Amino acid sequence: MALKVKCSVDASKFAKKYSQLLSDDKTMLACHNLLFKMETPYVPFDTGVLSQSVEVTPNYVMYKQPYAHYMYEGIVYGPNIPIMENGVVVGFFSRPGIKKTSTGRYINYDKSHHPLATHHWDQAMLRTEGEAFRQGIGKILERRAKTL
User: Fold this and answer.
1) How many angstroms separate the CA atoms of 36 and 109, rounded?
2) What is the domain extent for residue 127?
3) Domain total for the chain?
4) In the predicted model, what is the mean pLDDT of residues 32-36?
């Protein structure tokens, strides 16, 4: 003889809990901290200033250097003026107030500190570690759901 069990679930309770989780600052801060931790190996690292000057909040992860957007896009913008030391180019700068435009060339990232460094580093991390990231978010949501 087979035993049949009928179960009904009020999905609105789950929706309410899910909504609470997504609007909870502690939950979202934990999620953004995980994102920052997992994407760091993909962030370009020359002197470390870009990957170390980051603001992580419940709403976003923001790289605070003025050049962060250019590094994220991965395209060289100019005009660029070379910085010379002893006849060797050691860097570039752009004059303030001069509109910068794409040169069409891609940035060649130094990979000595962060071998995975690339443009659109969050997307690169998700392509290679997306499942681990999703599992991490799931664990955060499970933990936080118990506290709400």
Assistant:
1) 19
2) 23-147
3) 1
4) 97
